[in-house]
Design goal:
- By secondary structure, this protein is α+β, with helices and mostly antiparallel strands.
- It has a single domain, classed as Roll (Transcriptional Co-activator pc4, Chain A), CATH 2.30.31.20.
- The chain is built from 3 helices and 7 strands.
- A 7-stranded antiparallel β-sheet has the order 4-3-2-1-7-6-5, sandwiched between helices.
- The longest helix has 14 residues.
- The protein is globular, with a radius of gyration of 16 Å.
Length: 133
Amino acid sequence: MTDDYVMLHAKVPFGLRTPLSTDALWVDLTYDTRDPYAIHFAPRERPQLPPWLFSRELVSRGLYTGAGQGDVQLRPSARDGSTLIHLMTPTGRVELMTRTNELAGFLERARAVVPFGEENHWIDFERELARLA
């Protein structure tokens, strides 16, 4: 466990796909070493879209092969170098898309800080156990 932490941020363009159109949408991506297994997705300017917390591994796998089950699924587009993210909420379904290289670049920055398989070195297990007590 390390006492220092690192936060990475990126503002990434997405398309919000509906049956009738695709609207532009900016999403704030955040990677925080205090939660080293996760990537936070926060849509801007769309209060009806909640923030999402994705497994870093899920996003990584979803860039190149289908990944996820149930409420969250990622897969590469078969035609244009983009990644599709399907989200189910209690109020409906949303499909987002972005250029794969945008997500891959953000993941690479996170991997440079915390390589896959080393996430546990960033967790303060004593603090987490104390929070449960």
